User: What shape does this take?
Amino acid sequence: MNFIVPLNLPKAPLKISKIKEEYYVFCIIRKKKLIITPEEWVRQHVIHYLINDLSIPIGRISSETNIKLNGMIRRCDIVVFDSYSVPKLIVECKSPNIEINDVVLHQIASYNRTLQVDYLMLTNGLTNDYYKIIKETGVLEIIEPINLEF
Assistant: This one.
């Protein structure tokens, strides 16, 4: 199980199973077993972190959300909505061996052209960066996760 690496996220109560030679994790958002990849390992930890540590109701979280961008379908790893179903946070999850850098920031910023959220989170499970978007200027302000307001 080389996908299991310690992350800089709280321990998550993941349900892992093995079928033949593949390991699966049960996604509490999508309500199905998914093959564990390094990125999925991070995504599932983030989902549990949002629910258990940031107290975001499970019904406000969407995983692998399709959006249309420049006529093409793209997928946001995680989108969090407010109580009016307005998108508020996009989370971009990468494998722990992928660096969180400007390329990843540009990727999530392009998704935000469609969703127009207030917050962004970039994570590879080891590095977790949080931003608040100042709507008037478009400037990204680095924040702590405790400052996410929904």
Remarks:
- The domain at 16-147 is CATH 3.90.1570 (tt1808, chain A).
- The chain has a mean pLDDT of 91.
- The radius of gyration is 15 Å.
